[in-house]
Design a protein that fits this description.
Elements lengths: L1 E4 L25 H13 L6 E4 L10 H15 L8
Amino acid sequence: IVHCDADVLAFADTPLSDSPDSGGDPIGLTLDELTASLAIFAASPRFAALVLTEVNPDHAPEPSDIGRFARAVGAAIVGAPSPPLQ
């Protein structure tokens, strides 16, 4: 089981966590880096489940941000190429 907390994401790239950047150097993974990692985990025959936590769509500046996140994560765990980011 893979546990993925949205706080691992760089807020400037994917603003869906409860931990916005402090104004210093960006901290965290881009959505592309996260989904690349998830694709590797999901490709393992030992992969059983994905737990997503702390996704907060209220922080997203655009309503489409949560859909972009969901499509990218879904594509990563089923092994499909990631859809274009819009």
